[in-house]
Specification:
- By secondary structure, this protein is mainly alpha-helical.
- It is 67% helix and 0% strand.
- Helix 1 packs across helix 4, helix 2 packs across helix 3 and helix 4 crosses helix 5.
- The protein is globular and about 35 Å long.
- InterPro entries: Xre-like_HTH, Xre/MbcA/ParS-like_toxin-bd.
- It comes from Rhizobium alvei.
């Protein structure tokens, strides 16, 4: 899952700092994991990865063209008070990732 998330972060055009926030880890640890592969990951880290990949899957189901989904992450959205989904997720809490995922699941009818 970690390698898939790393590839997704590249497609979302995230900085290492942003990716580290999404995974709730120090930037230095993220860079080490990115270069060497992940070490031990706790329950919270696994939940974060699961939600991130769930967001990606939902976007792939909603948008036929993958790039539209990648762009959606950065687009302002009325459902998030005019913020982008990325801004919401960068709040840093697991619940922020879950909020975006729940929204997308509702949009695609996946409750």
């Amino acid at each position: 899952m970690f390698r898939a998330a790393i590839n997704l972060f590249r497609l979302w055009d995230l900085t290492d700092e942003q990716a580290a926030i999404l995974l709730d880890m120090p930037v230095r640890s993220f860079r080490r994991w990115k270069a060497e592969g992940p070490g031990r990951m706790g329950r919270d880290g696994k939940a974060r990865l699961s939600n991130i990949l769930g967001i990606h899957k939902a976007l792939r189901l909603i948008f036929r063209e993958a790039q539209r989904g990648y762009d959606w992450v950065r687009a302002n959205n009325a459902a998030f008070g005019g913020q982008s989904a990325l801004n919401v997720m960068l709040g840093g809490e697991l619940s922020d990732l879950m909020r975006v995922r729940r929204y997308l699941d509702a949009v695609r009818g996946g409750w």
